[in-house]
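thread: overnight batch results

M.L. [08:02]
morning all. the overnight job finished for the chain we discussed friday. pasting input first so we're all looking at the same thing
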Amino acid sequence: GSNGPASAALVDVELKVGLTKRKHLRIDDAGITWGGEHVPFASITAFTYHAARLAVANTEFGIELWQGKKRTSVTFTGGDDLRHVYTTVSDVLFERLGRPALESAIARIDAGESVELGGWTFDRSGATQGKKSMPWSAPYRMIPSTMSQFPCTYVNAEIDGKDRQIGVFGAESPHSCIVPSVFELGARMFGGR
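M.L. [08:03]
and the structure it wrote out:
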């Protein structure tokens, strides 16, 4: 607003990138600046965030931002001392971008539209990936992959009394961080649960 500085930093920190480099991460009301690159919130068409433990005291934290086809990756490594930075960034991204994307997706599904998100197609009848689908009424579970080279989550559902793998979403794919919420809300709203 007009009282005080134009945009106070929500995050303003130097982070370790790789073994020896450091980069500056700043997030304010206008957007995200990583190194010298500024990505305005208004230009972000998709995003996600993910964390993978590399060793006992070392985690790789990642934030992916898309402006159309252009992708900006914010990746930094560190111990639990940096988890608060990652948590703050993911909270800000969820509030600014995730919640509106989730609300829009659910409203569109409720209105009878099909919504593409994180490699899935969601509609009032359920979730589909490729040739496999599940109705919202099917009991399902999310199974995080243990392969660090391809961080992802598998979705299994009980179809005809059998546990079947329906699909997968990669940790680094657009909007993958809100896919679990779409499943949860879809099952609650359209699955009669």
